[in-house]
What does this fold into?
Amino acid sequence: MSKEILTTQDLHLYYGSKEALKGINLNFDEKGITALIGPSGCGKSTYLRTLNRMNDLIPGVTITGTVQFKGEDLYAPNADTVQIRKEIGMVFQQPNPFPFSIYDNVIYGLRIAGERDKEKLDAVVEKSLRQAAVWDEVKDHLHESALALSGGQQQRVCIARVLAVSPEIILLDEPTSALDPVSSSQIEATLLNLRHDYTIITVTHNLQQASRIADRTAFFMNGELVEVDQTKNIFMNPAKKQTEDYISGRFG
Amino acid sequence: MNSKVQNKIAIGVLYGIAGLVVLILLALVGYILVSGLPKVSWHFLTTPAKAFLKGGGIGIQLFNSFYLLILAMLISFPIALGAAIYLYEYAKDNWVTNLVRTAIEILSSLPSVVVGLFGFLFFVVKLRLGFSILSGAFALTFFNLPLLTRSIEDSLHTIDDKQREGGLALGLSRWETVTRVILPAAVPSILTGVILSAGRVFGEAAALIYTAGQSAPALNFMDWNPFNISSPLNPMRPAETLAVHIWKINSEGIMPDAKAISSGSSAVLVIAILLFNLAARYLGKRLYKRLTSA
It folds into this structure.
């Protein structure tokens, strides 16, 4: 087993007084893809957003338990959310490119961090877009607006934008649910490309997608982690009855 | 009555109302232009006004209007921008924020003549700024600040929260997200708001009568040293604007061609404000297109 990069212990999250996560214990090894699945409202997206503290933005949220990234407590009082989010990047359900050129979108994080070297920026743009498997489609109009791209291309540019700040972990919140099947499969291919270099955690509604791309799958229900295992075990030979019911389409 | 007929009647009534609004505007603008435009000439736009004789122009008033507008915008825009960013991006939803919002709303509903009289007492008398462009610019700031703050807040509101999430998730700080992602994206709509409020400020008279004053001393347009009293740039000189000029001619003008000058000035004022509005639409659209190329 490779070493653990991200661990959560007894993680509870409350929206006001409503308990949305009921004590999650889940650890992630370096590299590879983990899929979080489960019915709507089961807490999988909420859980994902605790991993880079995006839930901080929602008023009335309380979190207890620990989340550790390489042994550092993400919720320590002196934790730097800006630094955390550089190392743990996130891609959202709706592609959200900035209303600037493709080039500017990709290097935005670096440029704000103070990088001015044109050659280096050019290199990062090409590398990131190649990694996100969208380079060939956009290389001839890098300086046109990213909003003119199709949804699937926009999403891959958003992935490239995250890659450009070289995070260690990439969180994806249903990255393909707003896309057509062709774009979805391109995103899947992109993720499979990246799994050797990054730790990828993706929330998905699409069970086939989880079975196609994930090394490990975690099944959530009603704010609890029901089961986590190698993907083929979850799908072929689940340990829990609830998992089997969900996988076989008896509910959800 | 079946719903199809009902629908037709409703649409007809709405068309009628919309048509009426357009008609009123056209009639008003048409009347002002028809009665005023014949008076407008290069001579009229560039010569100083005359107190008793025929043939005066509005050159100084026109310059004053623009100068005052620019000064007022220079003062009010940074404050409004800061206030709007604070209120929309940072302020928590608590009683302090609500208090600030309520204060802004009340400020925006104050009659401009009251703002003018306050400006007179505070800037002109208390701070001893006298009837001056500076007093006028401060009074206009009071008048303009709430409107501008509200309009910039609305501009920020049009930017999707997903953009904010995107920025933060990329490891930008809140400030970086606001200044490097949200503001650039909001520029077209902020610009539109600024130009529209400029139109309102440009036509304002009541707030200026007792602050920027009702006299337009002769200016030497060769002298650009702001410390000389006859320099156009001197912010401490009294400066009657075009809108105030119109008010004054109509209440106490004794020159023989007062009526014609008033009509001509009104036409120039209306044209300027129309130009502001058209420029706002054009620039806003163009910038938005350039940003999104969609």
